[in-house]
Amino acid sequence: xxxxxxxxxxxGFHMSHYRDFKNYYLGYVSVMYxxxxxxxxxxxxxxxxxxxxxxxxxxxxxSLKGKPTGFEFIDSTCIKVCHNIRIPRHKTFDGIAQRxxxxxxxxxxxxxxxxxxxxxxxxxxxxxxxxxxxxxxVEELAHRLTDKLYGDKGxxxxxxxxxxxxxxxxxxxxxxxxMKAKAISLWDRGVLGTFxxxxxxxATAHVS
Length: 208
Known about the structure:
This protein is of the alpha/beta class. Helix content is 36%, strand content 22%. The longest helix has 13 residues.
C-alpha cells in the first residue's frame, strides 16, 4: 500500500465513531472499501506498517495549522491510555506514560496541549506525559504568537506571564475563587467569555 493510502485509513479511523481500530479495519474498511484499496493489507501487516507514516502525518498536520491572529486560546486535555485500575498491568506505554491530574481527577497517560485562534483553527499543539504541568510547554507553543493569549486558571503564573510579556505576548487568564478579581478590560473579559470555543474543539477531538 502507498503512504497516502495508509494515512487515509488512519485519518478515517479518527474521524469515525469506532472505538477501536481492529473493528474499524476488519469490519468497515475491509468490507466497504475493498475496491478503493485494491492492495489492502492484512490487519496484522497494516499494524506493522503504520509507524512509517508518523513523519508524513506530522508534515500533513503542519500544513493544516492555522495562522496566529493576535487573539489565541490555550488549553489542555488528558489522553488516557488505560483505566486507573489497570495501570499496574498496562504494558504498551509502560515507562513512557505517567500519572497526572486533570479536571476529572487522576489519570494515567499523556496530555494534549492546544493553542487555537478565534477561527477555531489549531495554531500549535504538543503532546507531553501526564505529569507535565499545563504551564510548562506554553512558551514553546507560543513562540510564533503576537498580542494576546487567553487561558483558564490553570495557566496562572507570574513567571510565565512575565516571560511571555518579554516576547510581546500578554497572557490573560481567569482567577481562582479565593483570589481577587483581576483588573482587565471589558474587551478581554468578553473574549474570556468565548473560551468554550477551545473546550468544544477538545471535546470534539475526544469524541472522534
